[in-house]
Amino acid sequence: MIGIFGKQSISIALSFLLVATMMPFQAGAQQPPATGGTGSVEQLAPLSTDELQQLAAPVALYPDALVAQILGAATFPDQVVSANDLIQQNKSLTATTLSRAVDAQPWDPSVKALTQFPSVLENLANNPGWTSALGEAYHLQAADVMSAIQVLRAKAQAAGNLKSGSQIEVVQQSPQVIVIQPTNPQVVYVPTYNYAIVYGTPYVVPYYPPPPPTAAVFAFGVGIAVGAAMSNSWGYSYWNCNWHGGAVVYRSNTYYGNAAWHGGYYGSSATRYGANGVAKTGAAYNPSTGTYARGASVSNGYGSSAVGQAYNPNSGAYAATHQTSNASGNYGSSVVSKNGETAYTQHQTTSQGTVATAQTSSGGRAAAAAGANGNRAAVGETANGNKYAAANGNVYKNTGNGWNQTQGSGPASSRGYGGQEKSSGSSAFGGGSGSGWQAKSESARGSASRSGGGGGGRRR
Question: Which of 67, 144, 201, 288 shows a CA-CA span of 20 to 30 A to 135?
Answer without folding.
Answer: 201
